[in-house]
Backbone:
């Protein structure tokens, strides 16, 4: 059974992970920055080392293409992820999928295999969305979700313009995004959550990606003296916010989603004044669109109920709304089968985070392979996936890619 | 039946209320400030107009004393309140009690009555505690609760020293606080809460003052990704804070106290991150010490329960602890009887706010008379007590004082 070069895979993860560290050891490679350029250069050198044709599109996505005279007219199998990071990031998020993809192709090529269709590994621009909004930008543009000319004008949090920065670092390509129509897309990624670590699962077969609804909820009460106002005459915006938080948790326990009240603010926020206003965010997610919509409706009905019982006024502002993304059942089954063949236990997973794969799912059958994140830590220097889990994931990746691309020994 | 001069009472409330207004009409007379000096001068002029002997003690409390050769060796009946204000204040809080006290004595004197014991009206320094801490300072010092020499060194929020400011405005007296040992103390005051307005009650017979426990509660959870962390693996400090708020409300519904979560803060306070920390204040009040202590114990037990169920860590820091103050039942009954005799409905009341009377209760039998605050608004320019209610309160005050001091026609 062919396997990837685990030592090389791990060495490259560390090598890319060393790029963008500041004096204090904080790793940051924001999209189209100087440090990300260094990372891009490294990725391109590895693609060239594997004998791949390197193409950069107008939004800065980098593709390493393995095609031959025999298969160049067939739709390619595409794999990939991203190498941009958040501020003070870990070294696995995104990078594992790009390095793993190069490793898979290099392994196949070096072993003298041939493929029925081209295999392409992509490194998509600005997945994290820290410097330029929105996130998953490169894959979204590639899938036709946003016009490239508009997106290149995006102004960053630092006042820079994305198109100018891409040009400056030498990664403004001339090819139109979407120039290759993939037959399918597969992404290897760390879980970024604790489930596989807690359950001792080695390979996650990611069958879907949660829908995300964000809203900012404003509750208006009446500021009054905390000592002189009896309970029955209070209109306590903070208490209503607390009730919403508790209600949400019970709601998603039933629906199987997750809910988070990340931000809260009281006005006047004084110890002896009943809050006249509470502003809170609600992050509601569910892999099932019907359940997500139903939870949101139930929540809205609860707002009405609270207006009656607690005499507050509640308004809600939509901040984000992404539908859940179902992945391709056929690919998910291939991932399960490949893991089983290597004696690795698997679990169906939902991606809780956004991914390039969710954008590629717009244009072709798509799925993801997850490997564990110890303690679920991510977007943090403590992000960690054990070496053996990285290698196991890359081998399952190799097997799935081989089957889907029709790889054979010559 | 003798009655106060209602027109004069109301005119003086307006006259004192006009002092300390800035260009924008915001009324502010912070303790020992230039504007409060103007208010003090006005009060002293009214005391002198009533033929009272004016004495200022070392902490700046002003007393107007009506005594005669016949009664000067008897313990006086003392009444009074304060004329310092919060920032952007109403015109009734405190002032009604001082002006009402002067009015009661002037009414008795002008009608040719005599009194078995001296009647003293006091205007206590710095009841509000906005510029200098603590609040109820003048009455607390008068009652022996703090040493005057220490308190005079108090540094204000504006960097000034209380003793120097009192000297500057000409109200650093030479008499020791506590120089008169009162037989009893009665304070006329606005409710500062909504109960009497809502229930249509004209006279509140204040039987006690709530105990106040303040604590700052810190809940430690674990910051994690709002999307990738399943509900059963969350340690959500914000949710625990919400549960505490909801629990508190149910707790005081049973005990008859009030509870307020005025301040709250989440860390990191990001929309898609489970809060790792929540810091909240708890303001817990009850007129009954046993119930207040019991509520606090139940709350502490709930913290332990949450540590088990929600895996958070909870710590609490004591900020303030005042025991409840029971007032004198005999005086409370006199207030009820006097109101009934004038055809005014009454209600036993608990003072939700701190008062000079709570300090005077340390050294003599004490009670308070409340008149309604429309909509419970106080510490606000919209603070309002209808004219007829002010006059009604002053007349009940007159009757109670007359009975307690042994007032008779000559």
Residues:
């Amino acid at each position: 059974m062919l396997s990837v070069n685990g030592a090389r895979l791990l060495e490259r993860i560390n090598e890319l992970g060393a790029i963008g560290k500041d004096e204090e050891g904080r790793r940051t490679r924001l999209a189209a920055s100087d440090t990300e350029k260094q990372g891009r250069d490294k990725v391109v050198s590895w693609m060239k080392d594997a004998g791949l044709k390197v193409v950069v599109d107008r939004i800065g996505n980098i593709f390493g293409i393995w095609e031959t005279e025999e298969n160049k007219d067939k739709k390619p199998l595409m794999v990939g992820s991203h190498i941009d990071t958040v501020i003070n990031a870990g070294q696995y998020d995104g990078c594992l999928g790009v390095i793993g993809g190069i490793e898979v192709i290099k392994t196949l090529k070096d072993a003298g295999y041939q493929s029925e269709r081209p295999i392409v590994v992509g490194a998509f621009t600005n997945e994290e969305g820290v410097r330029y909004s929105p996130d998953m930008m490169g894959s979204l543009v590639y899938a036709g979700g946003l016009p490239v000319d508009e997106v290149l004008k995006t102004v960053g949090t630092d006042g820079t313009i994305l198109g100018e920065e891409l040009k400056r670092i030498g990664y403004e390509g001339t090819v139109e995004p979407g120039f290759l129509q993939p037959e399918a897309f597969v992404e290897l990624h760390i879980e970024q959550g604790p489930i596989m670590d807690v359950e001792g699962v080695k390979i996650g077969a990611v069958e879907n990606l949660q829908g995300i609804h964000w809203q900012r909820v404003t509750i208006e009460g009446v500021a009054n003296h905390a000592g002189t106002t009896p309970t029955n005459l209070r209109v306590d915006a903070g208490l209503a916010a607390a009730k919403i938080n508790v209600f949400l948790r019970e709601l998603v326990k039933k629906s199987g989603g997750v809910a988070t009240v990340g931000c809260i603010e009281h006005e006047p926020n004084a110890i002896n004044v009943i809050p006249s206003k509470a502003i809170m965010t609600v992050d509601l997610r569910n892999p099932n669109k019907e359940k997500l919509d139903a939870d949101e409706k139930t929540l809205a009905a609860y707002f009405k109920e609270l207006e009656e019982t607690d005499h507050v006024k509640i308004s809600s502002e939509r901040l984000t709304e992404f539908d859940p993304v179902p992945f391709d059942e056929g690919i998910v089954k291939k991932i399960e089968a490949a893991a089983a063949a290597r004696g690795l236990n698997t679990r169906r997973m939902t991606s809780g985070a956004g991914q390039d794969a969710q954008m590629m799912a717009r244009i072709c059958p798509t799925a993801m392979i997850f490997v564990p994140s110890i303690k679920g830590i991510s977007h943090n220097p403590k992000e960690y996936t054990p070496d053996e889990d990285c290698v196991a994931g890359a081998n399952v990746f190799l097997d799935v890619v081989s089957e889907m691309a029709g790889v054979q020994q010559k």
Notes: The longest helix of chain A spans residues 289-310. Chain A is about 35% helix and 20% strand.
